[in-house]
Design brief:
Number of helices: 13
Structural class: alpha/beta
Largest sheet: 7 strands, mixed
Order of helices and strands: EEEHEEHEHEHHEHEHEHEHEHEHEHHE
Bound molecules: nicotinamide-adenine-dinucleotide, zinc ion
Shape: globular
Helix content: 25-40%
Radius of gyration: 20 Å
Length: about 375
């Protein structure tokens, strides 16, 4: 089969690799029908995660079709259309039993395209298939469910739920990339009073307004703290969601927060960040961190099935799977290309027995100006 292989910082190729096979009885092999690229993949390509070894197939979000199951798999069958989530669950460890799959200590958690070969590939081996795959409701297209593999549960669980958003809250979302926009989309489930989006890029702030932000602030040319204080009678916001992953944005969240408020950090941080306890200790501020558990995945799928929200708005570009390298270029240059999420598509209706389909469809949306 072919897959996107990481060869060290800045180096990747779409190349021929061995077909994945069943290793453990709890595995499945899935043919990837649709996949996508995450901001975290860009971190890997930059070398920010040195634990990713050269030779690793990248990718941790996909929709596919099961082509093989191990002897111990009982709830998933060959031919099932499934969502392959960014987080796997062993189902047996203490944390999985608490629904805390992100910190699974039994070999699950975030493993695809990180600890094991990932999902920007024609086929993938999926460990713990019974606990980690979600059957896709038949009425839904790949594109409707693909973003439930990562950005939607991440923004909802680590941003909105950790931030304990309740009706009427004023919330600030710092960073309006896919995660920040997914936080806007899912925060609305809790009817906040006002959503303030903060970003350096006007193009992203325009998107934030489309997604339902009430106020946008470009902190490159405006004083975000002063503006938020003006909007909140000098108190600050009830909840601040950090969706960038750099020191200034975390610090900004701790400056925007009202006494007794909640700061929910979602960003993946690669550098040391200062926590200003000398200012915060007296303000009763709660700060949370986390990796997504994906425990809300079934609920999010139900909302999409019920027409409550439409994640296809994230899909700005489409590429054949075989053009994944080009898709990285477009996704990595989001400021110029306007990319939010790219959809990598395999040939539709690949034969179930045949495992090769490198010829991908020639559908591609033009890059917006
Ligand atoms: N905790 C988790 O489980 C988890 C899961 C997935 C992704 N993440 C992380 O979430 C973060 C956001 O992901 P994304 O895909 O939306 O990233 P992204 O890079 O696409 O978007 C980040 C946004 O932040 C803006 N930005 C950059 N610097 C800024 C600054 N100083 N002030 C204000 N805005 C600024 C950018 O313009 C961009 O719009 C990343 O760090 C990613 O790795 C965390
Ligand atoms: Zn991701
Ligand atoms: Zn576990």
């Amino acid at each position: 089969m072919h897959a996107l292989v990481y060869h060290g910082p800045g180096k990747q190729a779409w190349e021929s690799v061995p077909d994945p096979t069943i290793v453990d009885a709890t595995d499945a092999v899935v043919r990837i029908d649709s996949s996508t690229i995450c901001g975290t993949d860009l971190h890997i390509m930059k070398g920010d995660t040195p634990e990713v070894e050269a030779g690793r197939v990248l990718g941790h979000e996909a929709v596919g079709t099961v082509v093989e199951i191990g002897a111990a798999v009982t709830t998933i069958a060959v031919g099932d259309r499934v969502l392959v989530s960014c987080v796997s669950s062993c189902g047996r460890c203490r944390f999985c039993k608490e629904g805390h799959y992100g910190i699974c200590s039994g070999g699950g958690g975030w493993i695809f395209g990180y600890m094991i070969d990932g999902l920007q590939a024609e086929f993938a081996r999926v460990p713990f298939a019974d606990n980690s795959l979600y059957k896709v409701p038949p009425a839904l297209s790949d594109e409707q469910v693909l973003f439930v593999a990562d950005i939607l549960p991440t923004a909802y669980e680590i941003g909105v739920l950790n931030g304990r958003v309740v009706p009427g809250d004023t919330i600030a979302i710092v960073g309006a990339g896919p995660i920040g926009l997914a936080a806007i989309m899912t925060a609305k489930l809790h009817t906040p009073g006002r959503i303030i989006a903060i970003d350096l890029a006007d193009s992203r702030l325009d998107k934030a307004l489309e997604f339902g932000a009430d106020v946008v602030i470009n902190n490159g040319n405006e004083d975000a703290v002063a503006k938020v204080m003006e909007l909140t009678d000098g108190l600050g916001v009830d909840v601040a969601i950090e969706a960038v992953g750099v020191p200034p944005t975390f610090e900004l969240c701790t400056e925007l927060i009202r006494p007794g408020g909640r700061v929910a950090n979602v960003g993946v941080h690669g550098e040391c960040v200062t926590l200003h306890l000398e200012k915060l200790w007296i303000r009763d501020v709660m700060i949370t961190t986390g990796i997504v558990d994906t425990r809300t995945t079934p609920m999010l799928l139900k909302l999409i099935e019920g027409g409550r929200f439409d994640p296809t708005v994230f899909a700005t570009h489409h590429f054949p799977l075989a053009d994944t390298v080009e898709a990285y270029e477009v996704f990595g240059a989001a400021a110029e290309t306007g990319a939010l999420k790219v959809v990598l598509q395999a040939v539709p209706a690949a034969p179930k027995d045949g495992r090769r389909h490198s010829e991908a469809p020639a559908v591609k949306t033009p890059v917006p100006a």
